[in-house]
Amino acid sequence: MMFEDDKDDKIYNLIISNGIDKNKEYGQFTEKLFSKTDFLWKESISPSYSTAGEEFFKKVDGVIILAGLYKDNKEKIDELVDAAQEYNIPIVLVRPYGLEEVPEELEQKAATIVGWNANCIVDSIKNSDEMME
Predict the structure, then answer these.
(1) Fewer C-beta neighbours within 10 Å, C or N terminus of the chain?
(2) Which fold has domain 4-132?
(3) Cα dihedral across residues 44, 21, 119, 130: positive or negative
(4) Sheet containing strand 11-16, strands side by side
(5) What is the pTM of this model?
(6) What domain of life is recorded for the organism (predicted)?
(7) 62-66 and 40-43: which strand pairing?
(8) For the chain, which residues make up each domain, given as ranges?
(9) Tell me, what DSSP letter sits at residue 95?
(10) What angle is formed at CA 98 by the lines to CA 97 and CA 99, rounded to 5 degrees?
């Protein structure tokens, strides 16, 4: 039985790192989010996160960094991480698919680090808010 309190009607507004993606991690990741039918989310995308500004970022609940994309998209992801820090948005760092290691410079900035389990991903997004307070 589900209690009313457990139902989360919030629609999470997320930024998910994207770019050169040899292992198709972005698609796998969004599939995991879609598989959790009780988790509502939408995605905000900007061509340049360094110039997107406060109007854009104040609506964002969390930034998802797919660590597996970091090597090939370092500049763009660094830009996104800097903006998340500037606007105090929690960063959820997702381990590279099939690997435990995450880039150290990202690890230090993340509110939480998560693997590829859909439940863990959703929980970490919901809880990363609280970690920022």
Answers:
(1) N
(2) Rossmann fold (3.40.50)
(3) negative
(4) 40-43, 11-16, 62-66, 91-94, 112-114
(5) 0.90
(6) Archaea
(7) unpaired
(8) 4-132
(9) P
(10) 95
